[in-house]
């Protein structure tokens, strides 16, 4: 992302069970940038924790909304993270996320059945 001289690049990583977002902020403006702050906003699935946002629903894209503020402006962007971030290092889904996924599938199935009955 580039905006007003601020270039942001990055990636996601999972190390020892912890999901991390690694970012590089580069000042390409002719002025000094100070007073940085970052905020990760709730995403489309209304989760505040990135790893809790797994959904088996095909229309949900795993993404994270980010706001970066400095003395010049506030920059907003959304970035997609790989679904593999939600799996443990051995490639299996962790127990917590598996249980959450089952609950979500059950809710979606129930909602679809209720919608079908009303038609």
From TrEMBL:
It comes from the Eukaryota. This is Clathrin adaptor alpha/beta/gamma-adaptin appendage Ig-like subdomain domain-containing protein. Gene3D superfamilies: 2.60.40.1150. Residues 4-50 form the Clathrin adaptor alpha/beta/gamma-adaptin appendage Ig-like subdomain domain. It is found in: Endomembrane system. Keywords: Protein transport, Transport. InterPro entries: Clathrin_a/b/g-adaptin_app_Ig, Clathrin_app_Ig-like_sf, Clathrin_b-adaptin_app_Ig-like. Its main location: membrane. It is a peripheral membrane protein.
